[in-house]
# Entry
Amino acid sequence: MMREVILAASARRDFIGITDYLFEEFGAVGLQRFLVRFEDIRKNLLDNPKIYKVAFKRQNIRKCVLARRCVIYFKIHGDIVEIVAIFDTRQAPEKLQKRLNTK
# Structure
């Protein structure tokens, strides 16, 4: 089965915001570490996205930890794995729930 990982528009904005922040605060080295970890997780999502636990059952949204303070939320649509959010866990959980319509 050939899967594809895509980023929803909101996840793309999250990704850009996080990478901009990391570059400003930690330079190219910090950004590179994040990008390597992101690519590792992307490969895992291609191989077996169901290894990650369901975070919001009703919406069928799963999550995986990208970094200590950063979690990826995604949905599986057949052969498509859609990353719907890359969330900084220092934010209020209500913000995530509102974005993902989990209330």
Q: What stands out?
A: The chain has two helices and five strands. Residues 13 and 85 are 9 Å apart (CA to CA).
